TrEMBL record:
It comes from Cohnella abietis. It is found in: Cell membrane. This is Putative ABC transporter ATP-binding protein YfiC. Pfam families: ABC_membrane (PF00664), ABC_tran (PF00005). PROSITE patterns: ABC_TM1F, ABC_TRANSPORTER_1, ABC_TRANSPORTER_2. The gene is yfiC.
Amino acid sequence: MWEALSEPFRYKKSKAVISLEKTIPTKREKQKAKDWQSTIRRIGKYLSHHKGRLSLVLLMVLLSSGLTLLGPYLIGRAIDHYLAGPGGTPWVLFLAGLATVYVLSSLIGWLQSIWMITISQETVYRMRVELFGHLHRLPIPFFAKRQRGELMSRMTNDMDNVSSTLNSSAIQVFSSVLILIGTVTVMLFLSPLLTLLTFLIVPAMVVGMKWITRRTGVLFKERQRNLGELNGYIEETLSGQRIVKAFSQENRVIGEFRQRNDQIRLSGFWAQTISGFVPKLMNGLNNISFAIIAGVGGILAIRGAITVGVIVVFVEYARQFTRPLNDLANQWNTLLSAIAGAERVFEILDEEEEDKDESTAITLEAIQGEVEFSHVSFSYNKSEQTLKDISFKAQAGETIAIIGPTGAGKTSLIQLLSRFYEADGGQITIDGHDITSIKRESLRSHMAFVLQDSFLFEGTIRENIRYGKLDATDEQVEEAARLANAHSFIVRLPGGYDKILQGDGSGISQGQKQLLAIARAILADPAILVLDEATSSIDTVTEIKIQEGLQRLMEGRTSFVIAHRLNTIRRADRILVLKDGSLLEAGSHDELVAKGNLYSELYYGHGQLL
């Protein structure tokens, strides 16, 4: 059974997922422990924003722990008083004192719980805001290497783990430590001999806990990683449902989902199973401790060394001595899971932001739109160059068409211009300014994009168009829609401009989405326009409308057009022909046809060009 269940983990040993057979910590595990300490310190920095309330919570914990220690002592005194017979302090006062202690303890516990929930929620709120803001300041290459679902898992599941731990586990650990220290102090005062006997179980507890936590820490971290991967896979398959069904791949994706789900089941099974040994171990050791205390305490009571009340108090304190250890052991699993989640959150926060190096960058209030590439080279990975020694100049207001086979580097060239990626060599300038000396926000504020797959946000059509200029009036939004040839179809929709679009604009056609994207770009009024396959998947009638909108949009602006259709390209002032990352030729349509090179071959060979 063990072999069957642990087989997936054995398969991943090369990735340091788990090694259940080993009993000696590896270097990787020790490194993880250092990471956990760093993570705890970073969480402490967030908690430091609530020093006042946190101090009150700690005070409440201190009072609650003191009352917890006082209760058993009063019980022992009451028993001794009762056995001593009438006289002295009325027995009812002991009962009243005991009731007062437990009522106050409950009230204080409720207050500390409310305050700690407030602190934890505000702390996680701050972490979520920081993480979400940081995600929007990360460069595009970061998102190219990450699944959206996996990032969402860090924002939700991992944050929830941190929140639940701060709500209860953190205070529980602190309270357990205080009770443990107080209990040991009182036990030593009552009977050093019985205290020593109680301590006999501590080495067994330490060894057992060390054996268990060394394994559960790796497992809980693996479970969080698997959960993030599963979320990413779910998000990917749900987004691609049309493709899944079109190619009848339902059974395959269900099978892959089961495989990923099985990994979570296994890591969760072993984490919970091994951590489940903790209470069993503690209970067994507790029972042994109680038996020793009862036996030795009885002998001491018969000899008159201690009273019966002391034995009762000591048994209760012995339980309180092991209960904090038991609580610490149980809460340790939650802490491990939360720390693993916090580590994943901090991994994202530690990613370098896109505009981190812009302290000396300039802001351009207005630009003419003159763009020059000078000996620019670029590669996504160092093994193969995507763009090689690209040089050309676009005058302000010119339309530059970029063509070439798939993989020629057309989109890469545009991504360098917008600084989504940075060039490896050479220089790109706008109006004579090196773009690396311009703040990215300033640079992109003078650019607008109309892409093949125009993304629309959930919200009204008016809000999606206004995304190009947030302070635009309703009249300006509608005028932009008219120029883009979008007004006529918008007013026919139920609700018109106030029609609410679902995620990614579902409910309207691809052509209508393109018209809205053009309206959004018109409203932005950019100096530089980028059209990336804006009409590649549109029918002829819709393309005519889009072309009319694009012509209005391109008037007086420097435009870069990536397209395959001839009627889009031949209107360009200049055409750049790329192949294998190199600029083979440049010129107008008539000039390139006359040269008889690659452009001419593509034109005469395909009619519609590419």
